């Protein structure tokens, strides 16, 4: 299985300096099928997210005890934290089939009706990027989720009739990177919402150790700590950096990934010790040097680094905000003390501390438009 859809479609965002960055949390074409082989296969196999795992275990076991289908489940969180993997695990734990689609693929209600009428009892229907579902399909989904039935409209105009169709009891698993963009009625129909949060470095190290085992890479502990520290709390990035470091180790050395090898490799790929790439540093540099720390609008900032505003906003910013280097204010983006220090500069006395945003759960991009 491959994920053909991505939250941020960068195909139209052809800026000058930005190409594939190894620390992009979205899925890149070069991730290919390797992601599939690295996916955890069961809840026990899944590293990190202890609360989500415990909660899900209860939801799934409870349903099993009662011999019914579990409530509909919403998985929310930033890209690359394991939502798709978790959806597959849910179907696996229930021992049922997983039917897979995505919000953008459900353009017409008929597409969804076809999917729903093909479900067997107990199936898991996974809708990725569910916040991008078209309105007519969303309305059909309400009824299907609540009453396991859909109304299919046949014909047009005054002669149109609506035919009710039964749907086998199923569990909907929706995934979204922007739960704030979901409509209220849709959100309310999920019985359980799991919030996936960024991973701790120790958890990323465990994930790296597991991936190294699967890929047959000799990865030393201090090297995995180094890679984990540059992975932005995101398993997808950790796995990708591991593969880049392996290339380096095999081409320039004997294949063993030591700390020195990891450091040299990550330097070649322009990933700095806290996980910033070239574009992140350019954005910070412009914010601090050209705009005196802000506030400045995201479009202006994007022009300054020769990038599309969407790329700056959706690729760079979430991490810079989470790392406490950039604060979003109603008047624009502001560099915090941490940003000045990161660039080796002395912050002005009135620089923001950025404390509130540091552990922000999920960047709600739409709330902060300038
Ligand atoms: N807890 C985990 N343990 C081990 N590997 C993980 C874990 N979470 C994610 N991964 C790895 O990260 C990769 C990306 O995960 P996944 O595709 O499930 O993320 P996602 O949240 O669905 O991302 P997106 O929002 O872009 O769809 C997977 O291929 C998997 O190898
Ligand atoms: Mg996914």
UniProtKB/TrEMBL annotation:
UniProt superkingdom: Bacteria
Membrane-spanning intervals of the chain: none
Species of the source: Rhodococcus chondri
Protein name: Holliday junction branch migration complex subunit RuvB
GO molecular function, one term: hydrolase activity
Principal location class: cytoplasm
Gene designation: ruvB
Family to which this protein belongs: Belongs to the RuvB family.
Note on domains (UniProt): Has 3 domains, the large (RuvB-L) and small ATPase (RuvB-S) domains and the C-terminal head (RuvB-H) domain. The head domain binds DNA, while the ATPase domains jointly bind ATP, ADP or are empty depending on the state of the subunit in the translocation cycle. During a single DNA translocation step the structure of each domain remains the same, but their relative positions change.
Quaternary structure, from the entry: Homohexamer. Forms an RuvA(8)-RuvB(12)-Holliday junction (HJ) complex. HJ DNA is sandwiched between 2 RuvA tetramers; dsDNA enters through RuvA and exits via RuvB. An RuvB hexamer assembles on each DNA strand where it exits the tetramer. Each RuvB hexamer is contacted by two RuvA subunits (via domain III) on 2 adjacent RuvB subunits; this complex drives branch migration. In the full resolvosome a probable DNA-RuvA(4)-RuvB(12)-RuvC(2) complex forms which resolves the HJ.
Region of interest (Large ATPase domain (RuvB-L)), residue spans: 19-199
Region entry Small ATPAse domain (RuvB-S), spans: 200-270
InterPro entries noted in UniProt: AAA+_ATPase, AAA_lid_4, DNA_helicase_Holl-junc_RuvB, P-loop_NTPase, RuvB-like_N, RuvB_wg_C, WH-like_DNA-bd_sf, WH_DNA-bd_sf
Subcellular location per the Swiss-Prot or TrEMBL entry: Cytoplasm
């Amino acid at each position: 299985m491959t994920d053909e859809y991505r939250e941020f479609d960068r195909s139209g965002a052809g800026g000058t300096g930005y190409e594939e960055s190894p620390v992009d949390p979205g899925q890149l074409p070069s991730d290919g099928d390797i992601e599939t082989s690295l996916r955890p296969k069961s809840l026990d196999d899944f590293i990190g997210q202890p609360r989500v795992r415990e909660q899900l275990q209860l939801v799934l076991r409870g349903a099993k005890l009662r011999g019914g289908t579990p409530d509909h489940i919403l998985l929310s969180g930033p890209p690359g934290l394991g939502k798709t993997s978790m959806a597959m695990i849910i179907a696996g734990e229930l021992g049922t089939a997983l039917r897979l689609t995505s919000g953008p693929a459900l353009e017409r209600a008929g597409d969804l009706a076809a999917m729903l009428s093909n479900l067997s009892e107990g199936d898991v229907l996974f809708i990725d990027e569910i916040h991008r579902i078209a309105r007519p399909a969303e309305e059909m989904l309400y009824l299907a989720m609540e009453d396991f039935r859909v109304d299919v409209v046949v014909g047009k105009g005054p002669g149109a009739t609506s035919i009710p169709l039964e749907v086998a009891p199923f569990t909907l698993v929706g995934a979204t990177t922007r739960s704030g963009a979901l409509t209220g009625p849709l959100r309310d129909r999920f019985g359980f919402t799991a919030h996936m949060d960024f991973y701790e470095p120790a958890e990323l190290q465990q994930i790296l150790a597991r991936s190294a085992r699967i890929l047959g890479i000799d990865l030393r502990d201090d090297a995995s700590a180094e890679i984990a520290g540059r992975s932005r709390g995101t398993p997808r990035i950790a796995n990708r950096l591991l593969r880049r470091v392996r290339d380096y180790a095999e081409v320039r050395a004997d294949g063993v990934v030591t700390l020195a090898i990891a450091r040299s490799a990550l330097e070649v790929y322009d990933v700095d010790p806290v996980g910033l790439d070239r574009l992140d540093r350019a954005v910070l540099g412009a914010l601090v040097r050209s705009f005196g720390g802000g506030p400045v609008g995201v479009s202006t900032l994007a022009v300054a680094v020769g990038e599309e505003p969407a790329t700056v906003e959706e690729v760079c910013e979430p991490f810079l905000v989470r790392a406490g280097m950039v604060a979003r204010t109603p008047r624009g983006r502001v560099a915090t003390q941490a940003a000045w220090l990161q660039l080796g500069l002395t912050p002005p006395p009135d620089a923001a501390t950025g404390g509130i945003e540091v552990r922000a759960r999920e960047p709600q991009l739409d709330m902060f438009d300038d």
